[in-house]
Amino acid sequence: MKINRKIIVRLSVVVAGVAVMSSCSADKDSAGLEYMPDMYRSAAIEPYVDYGEIREVTHDDLKVRLSAMVPPSGTIPFYGTDSMTVALNLPYHRLANTSFKLSHGMYDAELTDVNEYEAAAADGNMIKLTEENVEGIFAKGKELYNVNCAHCHGDKGDGNGPMVESGAYVGAAVLTSLEISDGQMFYSIYYGKGQMGAHSSILNKEEIWTVIHYINKLKDGSYGPGSEMMTEEVEETSEENQPTE
Ligand code: HEC
Question: In 1, 140, 231, 239, which residue has its Cα 20 to 30 A from 20's Cα atom?
Answer without folding.
Answer: 1
